[in-house]
Amino acid sequence: MKIIKKICIIVICFIIYSYVCNITLLPSNIIIFQGEDVNLKTIAGINVRRNSNIKLKSVQASNNINTNDSIYSSAGSYEINLDLFGTIPVKEINVNVIERTKVIPCGDLIGVKMYTEGAMVVGFSEIEGEDKKIYKPYAQSGIMEGDTIIEINNKKVSNTNDLVELVNSSNGNRINVKYLRGSETVDTTIVPIKNELSEYKIGLWVRDATAGVGTLTFIEPSTNSFAALGHGIVDIDTGGIFNIANGQLVGSNMVSIKKGKKNDPGEIRGVVNSADVIGEISKNTNFGVFGSVANINSFTVDSNKEYEVALRSEIEEGEAELICELENNEKNSYKIKIEKLYTSNNYDNKSMLIKITDERLINKTGGIIQGMSGSPIIQNGKFIGAVTNVLVSDPTTGYAIFGDLMIKQMKMTN
Predict the structure, then answer these.
(1) With bands split at pLDDT 50, 70 and 90, how would you rate the model's confidence at 50?
(2) Do 190 and 225 share a structural domain?
(3) What is the pLDDT of residues 168-205, one digit of tens each?
(4) If you placed Cys at 334, which of 310, 311, 358, 398 could pair as Cys (CB 3.0 to 4.6 Å)?
């Protein structure tokens, strides 16, 4: 009997844990297009209701709330409630329905420059003091790679120069350090060490900026907003998304192309033209880099060629085309094949498995190469997404992100 009771308790705990995890993982805010289904993966017993208490279709596994059966045929903000077995409220979800959007696909090679708010920690080093002893002043601080220092002794740290000056002005006294870890603000203290050059050090390697080249995906002409890359800029040292305070979209010049081979990814080699500022970057996310441009005419785009952003239900496996710039100021369209769609994926930028079929592109690049991320994809006269990744084992094959994910991320306010 004792064994049976233990098994029952374990089963009950597992069921409760499953429900808690499912409810926690459901988003609190959802953005959808008019005519798009609400896709909520829930488990049995969780019902979806409007605030008016009109029950909507319960969503389980990969099923959807169809907009034809619900309230989402017109733009606006709506609130739905989740309850357990029709009685216990468990979560509120805000649904923001936006109008169908038109964009101008680009494919231009661009440069990006981004700056952190503070100084990002990218490494550690031991300090040799003026007494010739080795110290690790950071050892007990709790600071890790990827953290961003924003204050020293209640004075703002905007960049690495601020950090150096404030540490040196401590004269070796214990300093109060405030840093960010994700969205959490943490306080700690460090005692700087004086080295043989009479400089005070805390043993942290930091940076406050990064730069690189990529591909501009589209411009939304109604707002002059842009999206690029289809993925975020990752810090090369920490491996995490570069947390920005601001940034600039700048011109770039292509230098050469390294062809991709099996187990040897290729790349577009270019230089960033920092003086040629053509836009401001406001967001660096897992779904792309976003901001605004001052003048659409800064790019070689036809402002009359606007494409509607496709719903996922409108995307098909089969032929499509991508647009990219492989010579300075010269863009072309190339044939690809969409081999698989992951229509329920809202969590990363691997929405479609694609394969390059155009021999012109294969001969020039070997397939998908670094720098092509963000190349827009068109199918049946609609913008459906952008290139994001290449398979190292086969450079002709890679992944692309759905266009609706980029638009929704661009329109999110936080």
Answers:
(1) low
(2) no
(3) 998 889 999 999 887 789 999 999 998 888 888 999 99
(4) 358
Quick check: is 119 in a domain?
A: no
Q: Which of 89, 97, 186, 195 is nearest to 137 (CA)?
A: 195
Distance CA 386, CA 354 (A): 10
User: Among 173, 202, 231, where does a domain finish?
Assistant: 202
pLDDT one-digit tens code per residue, 88-112: 776 777 676 777 789 999 999 988 8
pLDDT tens-digit profile of 308-340? Answer: 999 888 999 999 999 998 887 788 999 999 999
**pTM (2 d.p.):** 0.77
Q: Is 250 exposed, middle or buried (0-12, 13-18, 19+ CB in 10 A)?
A: buried
DSSP letter string over 332-401?
EEEEEEEEEE-TT--SSS--EEEEE--HHHHHHHSS--BT-TT-EEEETTEEEEEEEEEETTEEEEEEEE
Q: Report the domain count for the chain.
A: 3
Whether residue 121 is contained in a domain is answered as no
Domain ranges, residue 140? 126-202
Looking at the structure, tell me whether residues 131 and 82 fall in a common domain.
no
Q: Is 46 exposed, middle or buried (0-12, 13-18, 19+ CB in 10 A)?
A: buried
**Statement to judge: residues 270 and 320 lie in one domain:** yes
